[in-house]
Amino acid sequence: ELYLDYNGSTPVHPEVLDTFTAFVAGSYGNTAAAHHEGRRARRILDTAKAEIALAIGAKPEEIWITSGGTESNNWALTGIARQYGRGGHLITTAVEHRSVLKSAEFLVEDGWSVSYLQVDEQGRIDPGQLDHLFQANTCLVSVMLANNETGTIQPVAEVAHFCRARRIPFHVDAVAALGKMPIDVNDIPCDLLSLSAHKMYAPKGTGILYVREGLPIQPLIQGCGQQAGWRGGTVNVEGVVALAKSFALMKAGIYGSKEHIEDLREQMIDGLRRLAPDLRINGNAPRLANTISVTFPGRRAMDLLQALNGHGVSVSSGSAATNAAPSHVLTAMGFSEEQARSTLRLTLGAFSTREGIDRILEAFATVLQKVAVQDPV
Ligand code: PMP
Description:
With 377 residues, this protein is an alpha/beta fold. The protein has 12 helices and 10 strands. The chain folds into 2 domains: 238 residues, Type I PLP-dependent aspartate aminotransferase-like (Major domain) (Aspartate Aminotransferase, domain 2), CATH 3.40.640.10; 113 residues, Aspartate Aminotransferase, domain 1 (Alpha-Beta Complex). Helix content is 38%, strand content 13%. α3 packs parallel to α4 and α8 packs parallel to α12. Catalyzes the removal of elemental sulfur atoms from cysteine to produce alanine. Seems to participate in the biosynthesis of the nitrogenase metalloclusters by providing the inorganic sulfur required for the Fe-S core formation.
């Protein structure tokens, strides 16, 4: 209830956990094995994959199992670049998750070149910039669906149309959007799309890379020919089964409506404004309803985070993995380092309640008095 870091990770839903543990207890075959336990695991895997495919408008053969969003993003970028050969050019954005940005830097070391779409103060790219960045050797465009720090939703359909017209593969990191907005590969006509189960009430360690049928891509993980040789390693069947169950719960409306989350968001923001009238809410719609990026001028986000933690309230400063450095997302939006270091990310989810937010606001009331406004240096 006092948890405000749903973009960092989510609690596993009890029904997802039941599905997961039932599988672990009852099935242990390796999907690559020829015996009946292997066949059984394969059948279960195929059913779960088909359910996941259906949920995102894909075909089962287009769903590949990975270890998470990071691997899916690494695979999409390096797999397409290697397929193209040396000397290719990627276009991505300045506000991607590190798993995309670091893969891009790795490719540069290996002879590829990369251009970055810049963002406005709301964190949005201008697809019109693509014309200027496009080159004859552009072999991939990668743009996230929603930003994990600000919730900003990117105009990916426009990017997709640009790429389609020029026959360039288009990758979408949809990890932060999962469970928070519809994701359908027909609405976003992309060629590759990354998902991660732990962002939607399923256990950590399972990711998906959607690869449009017919698109050639080199493997990232080499192994014993599992998943048709596209991704080596014993398949994490229980993780996939759990994710399929989570998609079913989402479809059934178990995780709550967007309107409910929006009401909670307004309650949170109204309460905070009363406590700190000088705060700034970052990023305009369209954005994820659950994500609040809020700057408290002159206060250090890390001090606020730690003081809130003392009250049992879990918030994030920027993305979970980069608490030490000022957020590259916020600095790309034109924030000074100081402003970026004064920004908290509060993210809501299926188990957030009005009563919980009242208690969180009480904690904020105490903390905002204790954590003094710093003199500007
Ligand atoms: N992309 C985005 C937008 C994310 O928010 C995250 C998770 N923080 C990832 C990729 C990485 O996913 P995972 O944690 O499953 O490796």
